[in-house]
Amino acid sequence: MKMDKIWAPWRINYFKIKKQKGCIFCKAKKNNAGDYVIFKSKHCLGLLNIYPYACGHIMIAPLRHINSLGQLNQQEVMDIFAALKKIQLALDKVLKPQGYNIGLNLSRSSGAGITGHMHIHIVPRWIGDANFMTTISDTRVISQSLGQLRKELLKYVRP
Fold first, then answer.
1. Confidence at residue 54, expressed as pLDDT on a 0 to 100 scale
2. Which CATH number covers residue 123?
3. Model pTM?
């Protein structure tokens, strides 16, 4: 039986990244998280996920360090949903996905990897994107570098 190889040499950077202490969203608020921030407004920011489920996986978080929807004030709610709309429209133009998974994981029991700072995931989807790679080998193929994706998205999310 012949085994095919998938070469993705850029992925080595993900393994070399040292796990940082502290909240990634609070750090991103201060220093643009190594330029993975694609959007910042008065109450929230949009950040490319460096461990994406699919190409274009973005997280939207309030600037305040809070862990539940109930702690959001009305201005934050409106700002976050305006950002969600803006980012989805940008992803439509850049990646042309066939659908989206948009959601929140609130608490460790719901699958949240970052539990202290609530955030919304927006994950572009295509028919067949969760193919055998994800199903049997727990591997995802990401078809575009984060740097290139960021460059393209900034055309639509920043003034």
1. 84
2. 3.30.428.10
3. 0.74
